[in-house]
Design brief:
141 residues; mainly alpha; 4 helices; 0% strand; rod-shaped; CCDC17; CCD17 protein; coiled coil
Amino acid sequence: ALRVSYLRSGGHDPAILEQLLHLQLEATVLEKGTAGPRRGRRMAEAPPAVPAEPPSTGTHGLDEALLAVELENRRLEDELLALKVRRERRADAGSRAAQRHTEELARLQAEVGMLRCHAEQTRPWLHPPVFPRPVAPTLPP
């Protein structure tokens, strides 16, 4: 739940995600009661990616292998969730930007319409420009 909450709030730091995964592994091992004190200490330091003993040595090895696969699946699910959250945020940001552009375009079009209307209203009252009569140059005789 903590990892999902971290991902949903925008967290994506791989080091923190790995720490959360290790904490979950340690909590799962403690809940199942399959780890002895020596295994618990090793988990706190640096948990191995692969179980220490081969899976074929009995149910304890199978439990650890199953736990490792389950944790890898959860890690991948979390990674997928983080990717989905990022994609949704990008899509939301893109749609918000498009909405802002649409609003700005509508505002500018309304302003252009008002300026045209104003120009048409003031045009009849404008006096034609008065230019002095052109003076033709004198012609040579």
